[in-house]
Design a protein that fits this description.
The complex is a heterodimer.
Chain A (H helix, E strand, L loop, with lengths): L1 H12 L3 H14 L4 H10 L9 H11 L2 H11 L2 H8 L13 H9 L6 H11 L2 H12 L8 H12 L3 H8 L7 H7 L21 E2 L2 H6 L5 E7 L2 E8 L2 E6 L10 H5 L5 E11 L3 E2 L2 H5 L9 H6 L2 E11 L2 E2 L5 H13 L6 E3 L8 H9 L6 E8 L13 E5 L3 E12 L8 E10 L6 E8 L5 H13 L1 E5 L2 E4 L8 E6 L1 E4 L7 E4 L2 E6 L10 H8 L1
Parallel strand pairs in A: 1-11, 7-9
Antiparallel strand pairs in A: 2-10, 3-4, 3-5, 5-6, 5-7, 7-8, 10-11, 12-13, 12-16, 12-17, 13-14, 15-16, 17-20, 18-19
Helix pairs in contact in A: 1-2, 1-9, 2-10, 4-6, 5-6, 6-9, 10-11
Chain B lengths: L5 H10 L6 H4 L13 H4 L1 E3 L2 E4 L4 E3 L7 E3 L12 E6 L1 H11 L4 E6 L5 E4 L2 E7 L7 E7 L2 E5 L21 E6 L11 H14 L5 E4 L5 H11 L6 E3 L4 H9 L7 E3 L14 E4 L16 E5 L6 H6 L4 E3 L7 H11 L3 E7 L1 H10 L3 E4 L11
Parallel strand pairs in B: 3-4, 4-5, 5-6, 10-11, 11-18, 12-15, 12-16, 13-14, 13-15, 16-17, 18-19
Antiparallel strand pairs in B: 1-2, 2-3, 7-8, 8-9, 9-10
The chains are: A alpha+beta, B alpha/beta.
Amino acid sequence: MQRFAELLDRLVLTASRNAKLKLMTDYFRSTPDPDRGYALAAITGDLSFTGVKPGVLRALGAERIDPVLFAYSYDYVGDLAETLSLIWPGGAARSSGGPRLAQVVNTLAAASRSDAAGILAGLLDELDIPARFAVIKLVTGGLRIGVSARLAKQALAALGDVDVSEIEEIWHGIEAPYEDLFAWLEGKDAKPEESAAALFRPVMLAHPLGEIDREKLDAADYAAEWKWDGIRVQVSEEAGIRRIYSRTGDDVSGAFPDLVEAVTFDGTIDGELLVGTPPDETGSFSDLQQRLNRKTVSAKMQARYPAFVRCYDLLRSGGEDLRALPFAQRRERLENFVARLDASRFDLSPLVKFETFEQLEVLRQAPPHPAIEGIMLKRWDSAYVAGRPKGPWFKWKRDPFLIDAVLMYAQRGHGKRSSFYSDYTFGVWTGTEEALELVPVGKAYFGFTDEELKQIDKYVRDNTVERFGPVRAVRAEPGHGLVLEVAFEGLNRSTRHKSGVAMRFPRISRLRWDKPAGEADRLEALFMLLD
Amino acid sequence: MARAGGLSRDCRELARVNPTTPEKAFPTAANRYLLPMRPEQLLHTRPEGLYCPAGDFFIDPVRPVERALITHGHSDHARTGHKSVLATRETLAIMKLRYDDGFAGSTQAIDYGRQITVGGARVSFHPAGHVLGSAQIAVEAGGIRIVASGDYKRQKDPTSAAFEVVPCDVFITEATFGLPVFKHPDAAGEIGRLLSSVAAFPERTHLVGAYALGKAQRVIRLLRDAGYDRPIFIHGALEKLCAYYQSEGIDLGRLEPATLEDAPRGDFAGEIVVGPPSAFSDRWARRFADPVSAFASGWMRIRQRARQRGVELPLIISDHGDWDELTRTITDTGAREVWVTHGREEALVRWCEINGIAAGPLNLVGYEDEGD
């Protein structure tokens, strides 16, 4: 249990992706079964216990310690789980004894709503401080350690020196503590069989189309279709099992009951999840966001933003795996397949007819629908392969939006950048000419060169007006400020931001040392992009 | 700290005991009039610091005074400009290193355990276990003894004489970590975590933030005790103090300046570098290979503290006692009254109340909260 607790503590404070992978791979390599398997399940969110509510934690604390001292402590620490783990009597020394993770998981799994509090108290008595914190986080749900399920799978891939798609492919057919998976990754056993139905098939991705690529390609070899601005999904039905997977293999079926209901075919479709009523009405990404990251969806929400899939490809039809067929043949099969489905839930992604890339370029710059974010090029003869092979598929995105914004705050980075102010909050002007005011509209931490980073860092240090821990407020007035040209992919309405808008994928595209701060863009210019 | 809101303030009011009017606060202490002197006649606060009228001296004054008794060399306790200073030989040497020769008009060194008379009071210095030369100061007159503990810890530390319990009537305790959430683990175990990280990330530099006096030398000595025998690279701010510790017989092994010319592989990959915490957010830190930032401090017990500072590897190693050490020490001294100062006074006062010991906050200003 102690090693797992130490892993969580390190992961939560580590910013670098590579360092996180290293920490996880080392842990999986050096921890025996079944502990490592339960740790994996905890990280990927595949463990669930009878929940323990904050009120129960407070009550446990009150039984063990003076309520005034508890109140002082909670007031200071600010996090209930952490306060309880620290204040619980005993266990100050880091110990190597105590129950193992697997024992803890089994104990918690056997708990019911009525005895969960007592069982938790019993465990806390046996554990040291970091392990107590880990257990409380497990039972209250949500480790919040900044590690996605996909990153954990990548650590597994590194452990076994296999491609992550191989793990994604079998993931939904295996269960904690994953002893068969680890045996395979360590070369002690064969790859686990694909035993379950409607498993995830790793998706095929595209490279961005560069100038040089385009000159080398023959337009006749490629089909073109619109790149829709939704979320890429895989919809599968087999032996009565229906699944909607995200492109990284997470099962997102729960959020789209309306769509699941219409999955009445035996096959696997690759497509774009959108909201609206096809083919005529396709909602924006903002509309789609109303349906994302929700555990339950109200009937009202389903009626207002009905989900549907715009189909790109057919990977399986009945018992037949189509992935090895050329795109042209799969496309034909797809057209026939989709024709039989509920038209309000599934429609076909139309092909875009073109003869030259010059024609396509015109279409790309002026797509017929706002929910289109570019063009996909697919070789007519390409098989459907996992990952991002170079050559068969390209994405040719619409040019990003650009605005000129003013640097307002800078925050120190992590790791290699820990001595640099490298994360920038920028704003645009609002208010009247006489009383201009900056309102923050986004944050970006890449897009500049190392040399530019040094220049901005110096600017920040020389123009600091206030400090808040690792953050500095930078002088930003109409007559004095640094203008950043910011590129971004799209704009959503947001009630969480003061400006009312949230940018997608913002990055610094140019430093405008030459431009007076007062001439940066106004908020109205951003609002124009919304409509 | 940011969360110290209305609740704490209200509770502090409830728990407040003003040492200058003890009769009101403790009406049950009826036998107090049998004592020839009240404790607050022996020691009380003035703007300059804690004052003893009988001996006409201050303990750790924050402003220049005629006569100062100094508990230890940290700069918030040991300031310059006093006319005469009484302290341990080590504390005087540390002040001289930090402030040059003219830091005081005159100085007098005192050994641990020896009692001397200053004016109408008898004083003695006793090991506090905080840093090299640190002392608690016992003041006696009129039949009562007050111990001003300065900063102290009970955990084992090879770079400092071990804390000694001095029985007393009134114990003045610090409260830097005066909340039950502060529980310091064994420091050797924390060093073990640092060494595991060095082994796991051999291509990165481990930057260990540690305050220049006491903490840095302790961390280095603990690394040596754990068998780490590579050179340890230090920031310039640590040089004089490390050399002084070495001259006092505390073996820190091979230390090298963390300057570029001395970089073993050009960028200190795989090495341990120790420096003051402030240096790591500075441009100075740019010379190191993909650094892992570590920080040795009792504050690292709280995750949010580590996160705010961008610390990747928090090491819970402290110069100050944790909650259990503070409360155990209060019990050990047998004091019937406790004055609590710099830190989270209210929780320790509350603990005393629960345990039937008279207690109140002693409001001294000018001591840093963060110096661990």
